[in-house]
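Reminder: ligand-aware prediction takes two inputs, not one.
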Amino acid sequence: MPKTSRSPRPRTRRPQADDRLHYRELTGLWLQWLQRPEYMPLDRWLRKHNTKGSALRQQPALAQAMFQAQRYLQLACALEHQQRQDSELSDAQWQQWDQQWQPSHVEQLDAAHLWHWVQQRCQENWRWPDGFRHYEQRAEIFRQFRDASQRPLSAQWLLWHGIRPSWLSALRQRQEYSHWSDAQLTHWLTQQSEAAPLWLRVNPIANSAQLDQQTIYNELLQEKISVQRRGEHLCAHGGRGIGIGMTNLYKAGVIEIQDLASQHIVAAIKPQAGEKIWDACAGAGGKTLAMASQMNNKGAIIATDLHDYKLAELKRRAKRGQLLNIRSFVWEGNDVLKLPKEIARQQGFDKVLIDAPCSSSGTWRRNPDARWRFNEHDSQELIALQQRLLHLASQSVRPGGELFYATCSWQVEENEQQIAQFLQQNEGWQLLQQTMLGAPEHDADTMFVAQLKRL
Ligand SMILES: C[S@@+](CC[C@H](N)C(=O)[O-])C[C@H]1O[C@@H](n2cnc3c(N)ncnc32)[C@H](O)[C@@H]1O
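Here is what comes back for the chain with S-adenosylmethionine:
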C-alpha cells in the first residue's frame, strides 16, 4: 500500500473578504445543534433558532452551512480517520470502517475540524482566523482523498458524495426494480450532493387574473427571486430562505411551493371535479392543496393527519389558495375511518391517498440529515406502520374506487414490497401501476406511487 506523502505542505489561499462566515459562528451553531432533542430534523431546528437577534437571522448563510455539514459529516469523519492513518485505505477497508461508523461519532470530532472539511468539500469561502493551525495541515489529505474517490460507486466515491457505502446494496435493489442503468444510478447519487431546486406550482383557483407562466416568471424576477422556467414548470434556487413566502404572488395564493415529484404524484391521481377523496396522511397539505385546486372547488377532500398542528398549517394554506372543498380532522391511524354520511351513502371514497410516513430517503437533497436519522429499528417500525395505514385506509375505498400509496422514499422495502405484501394479504385489489418519480430523470426529490383499484 502506498505511503501517504505529507510534505511539502501546499500553501492554501486564505479568504480575503470580511462578509464571510466565521468558523466561531459555525462552531457555536454546531455545538447548539448537538444539544437538540432526539429526532428533531434540521429544518425544524433551524426554524426554532431563527429568532430575532439570533446569528441565523443575521446571517442566513449559516443555515445553508448547516445543511452542507449534514451532507458531509461522515466524509469529515473519514478524512479525520485518513489523517490519523499512515497509509491510504483500500475500498474494502473503507467499507469496513463504514460498518462501524455511527452518526454520533461526529460528536467526537473537533468542531473546527468538521467545518474545515466541509469548507474544503464545498469550496466555501469562509473566514478563518489568522494562523488557524488546521487549515493547511489537512489540505494534502483532502486532495489525496478526492483523487482516490474517482471510481463511481466505490466506497470512497460514495463517501465523497456524502452517502454511506452501506447504502449500496439497497440502492442496487432500487436500480434493479426501476431498471436504472449504472449511469442513472451514478447520476442519482451525484444529484444527492446538490440541493434540489424549489419547484413552484401555479394554483389556477387563486389565479383569477389568469396570469400566464411568462408573467408570473417576470413578476418573481422583479421581486428578486432567482427563478427559472423549465418546460411547463417554474423553479427557484437558493432554498427556502430566498423569500418566496414574501412575494405578492405567494401571499395571494397564486403560487405554492411543491416538489416536482410530489406534483407528479398528484398528476397520477388525476383528481376530478366532483370526486370524494380522502388524503389520509395530509400533513401540511402539499398534495391536498394540489388536488383541491385541480378539482375546481367541486367535490370534497377529507384531509386527516396524526398531527393537529400540521392540519392547522393546511387550513392556513387552503385559505390563502381560496380552496373551499377541504375538510380536515385528526385521524391517528388506529381504526378504520368513520365515514361521513355522504361518503357512506356511496360505500366509500372514490379515491384514497396514503402518503405514508417514511424514511424520507427520497428527500436527502433537501433534508440531508434524513440520511443519518434512521436506523434499522426505526425502519422496521415504519414498515409496520405503513402496512397498518395501508390496510386500514384501503377499507374506505368504494368498490370500483382507487387507492394510492405514496412515499418520499426510494427504498424497495417501503414501496414495492409493501404493495406486494398488501396484495398478498387482501383480496379484491388490482395493481394498475407502480413507479418511482422525480430523480434521476428530473432535478427533484425521489418519490414512489402505486395505484390500486378495488374490484
Ligand atoms: C409524508 S408526510 C405527508 C406529506 C403530505 N401529504 C404532503 O404532501 O405535504 C406523512 C404524514 O403522515 C403523518 N402520520 C404519521 N403517523 C401517522 C399515523 N399513525 N396516522 C396518520 N398520519 C400519520 C405525519 O404526521 C405526516 O404528516
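Residues 136 and 289 are 52 Å apart (CA to CA). Residues 23-162 form one domain. We will return to this case in the review session.
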